[in-house]
Design goal:
The complex is a heterodimer. The relative contact order of chain A is 0.14. Chain A starts with 9 loop residues before the first strand and ends with a strand. Chain A has two domains: 122 residues, Outer Surface Protein A, domain 3; 37 residues, no CATH class. Chain A contains six helices and eight strands. A four-stranded antiparallel β-sheet of chain A has the order 2-3-4-6. A two-stranded antiparallel sheet of chain A has the order 1-5. By secondary structure, chain A is an alpha+beta fold. Chain B is globular and about 55 Å long. Chain B has a domain of 60 residues. In chain B, the strands form two sheets. Chain B has a three-stranded mixed β-sheet. Chain B is mostly helical. In chain B, 52% of the residues lie in helices and 4% in strands. In chain B, α1 packs across α2 and α1 packs across α13. Classes of the chains: A alpha+beta, B mainly alpha. The interface between A and B is large, with 41 and 57 residues.
């Protein structure tokens, strides 16, 4: 069976920072400044979105590498998730009518296999932790556009003597350091 | 019932190791310490510590896991930027020295475990102006650089620091970092000058102690002023007693003899929801008296900060005189209108 390569999914590679972290693949989009976490199956599909690998090929890859009874619905679910995260350059050809690639359908297919939660393709957003004040200086913009007071009191980078300070009840600005 | 400071110590004990062992926290205790771990940059280490425990699915643990992911990406980005900054300075004929954040992160099993929000770069004093110009020419990176002209806490001269420095690869670039003896000393003193307010700094010391190279020269590390030597050995002892860092033989007995007030002071500091670096400026507080009480409260120096602030000894004498002296010193500076550099900036 021949395939029209122009319609095969093609991953975005430019403008992304990719980090492998254990079983997860982290992707930071330098353009949108969004970060995503792909689990193993989603990452496997995404990595093979090279414009030449077909959906049936991806099914085989999932079956071999994850040792699960994957089918096309699982691949389509993964493609759907990575496309929504804007990690595809060329969106895939729409799935054949009649293929149900909802999460529920994939779980039903995988129901016979163990460790379902680990293999259903998942792409989650990575958000900055609530209070990850890991830094010892911040920019003026970060200070003034950052979260509402109380401000952090961190020094402003490259402005000796200035710190991010609360200057009014609901406003933070670069001001004299304590 | 354990207090928050003790729980933080339990959560971070040995967290710099590839296999940090089991964590002795209950779900409620984890929820109590999670905000503090996140706030102080130790969220990723918290996750690393409990990732194989039954607590891993707790909502609080998932917040720590997000920090772990976030910091992994952030560190990868910062390493790239650090390489660009170093390359730009070298293009200008300046050889920078890197310490603390990026250099400390190398001591951990994964780079994202030890986040840093800026890149501390030291250059020779006579290169500072040129370095500042070179950094300013990097519009997308300049904000990240904290440029220093001297190591405030180290007494050695530049030539010696350079001579003993190392050149590992960070972010694909060969970067010059302080030699292990100087770096350990700097991390210990820097933590004490900040009143040991961030547990992450004590983890750095634990990580450094357990990755000392063969031939680490303790005599050189502890050379100099006897008070500094005592401060450094006490910081090492804190890492041992609070976080379970293994004590190297040459300093074992000295580091294990700590003044009685020291560990409670650290645990109290860790248990606070805010520390002095997060308080409004006194100038602001005077304009907004509603904040003045809190600003003054946060500025009351803890015994560690007060002792090193006035150059005191870590002995069994009461700390109140040191705290009062430190307050007077600061108030005098403030009233004289000469606040100068913030105390915690190393420029």
């Amino acid at each position: 069976m021949s395939h029209d390569n122009s319609k095969l999914p093609l991953a975005r590679r430019e403008g992304l920072l990719v980090e492998e972290l254990g079983d997860e693949t982290l992707v930071y989009d330098r353009e949108s400044h969004e970060a995503h976490c792909l689990n193993r199956s989603a990452a496997l599909v995404w990595r093979h979105c090279d414009g030449t690998t077909t959906v049936p090929d991806m099914v085989s890859l999932l079956q071999q590498e994850l040792d699960i009874p994957a089918d096309e619905s699982m691949v389509w679910l993964a493609l759907d998730r990575v496309e929504k995260a804007q990690l595809l350059r060329a969106p895939p050809t729409p799935a054949r009518p009649g293929i149900d690639y909802s999460r529920r359908a994939v779980i039903r297919t995988l129901g016979r296999a163990g460790g379902i939660a680990l293999v259903v393709p998942v792409v989650t957003s990575i958000v900055a932790p609530r209070a990850a004040h890991a830094q010892s200086c911040i920019t003026r913009d970060q200070c003034e556009e950052g979260p509402a007071p109380p401000c952090s009191g961190l020094p402003i980078c490259n402005r000796p003597g200035d710190c991010c300070m609360q200057v009014d009840v609901d406003q933070c600005e670069a001001d004299d350091c304590p | 019932m354990r207090r928050r400071g003790e729980l933080i110590a339990a959560a971070l004990a040995g967290a710099w190791r590839p296999d940090p062992g089991t964590v002795s926290l209950g779900p409620n205790e984890l929820r109590l310490v999670t905000p503090a771990l996140l706030r102080t940059g130790a969220g990723a280490l918290g996750w690393w510590r409990l990732r194989n425990s039954t607590l891993r699915d707790d909502p609080a643990a998932l917040e720590l896991q997000q920090a772990y992911r976030h910091h992994a990406l952030q560190s990868a980005l910062y390493e790239e930027r650090l390489a660009q900054i170093v390359a730009a300075l070298r293009d200008g004929g300046i050889e920078p020295l890197i310490a603390r954040g990026a250099a400390a992160a190398r001591l951990y099993p994964e780079r994202g475990l030890r986040p840093y929000g800026d890149v501390d770069v030291w250059v020779r004093p006579d290169s500072h102006t040129a370095a500042a110009r070179a950094v300013a020419a990097l519009p997308r990176l300049a904000w990240l650089v904290d440029l220093h002209r001297r190591f405030r806490h180290l007494t050695r001269d530049w030539d010696e620091l350079y001579e003993r420095s190392e050149t590992p690869q960070i972010g694909g670039e060969t970067v010059r970092i302080l030699g292990p003896e100087d770096h350990l000393g700097l991390m210990c003193l820097h933590m004490l000058y900040h009143g040991a307010c961030r547990p992450l700094w004590l983890c750095d010391i634990g990580a450094a102690l357990e990755s000392l190279p063969a031939g680490f020269d303790w005599e050189y590390c502890l050379t100099g002023d006897s008070r500094h030597r005592r401060w450094i050995t006490c910081a090492i002892g804190m890492a041992h007693r609070l976080l379970g860092a293994r004590l190297p033989d040459p300093v074992g007995s000295a580091a294990d003899r700590l003044p009685r007030w020291l560990l409670p002071a650290v645990l109290r500091e860790w248990g606070r929801s805010k520390h002095y670096m997060q308080s409004p400026s006194m100038a602001f507080s005077l304009r907004h008296p509603a904040y003045a009480v809190e600003a003054l409260r946060l500025r009351w120096p803890n015994p560690i900060l007060a002792t090193v602030g006035v150059g005191g000894s870590f002995d069994e004498l009461p700390r109140l005189p040191f705290q009062l002296a430190e307050c007077v010193s600061r108030a005098t500076q403030f009233l004289a209108g000469l606040p100068g550099q913030p105390r915690y900036k190393a420029n």
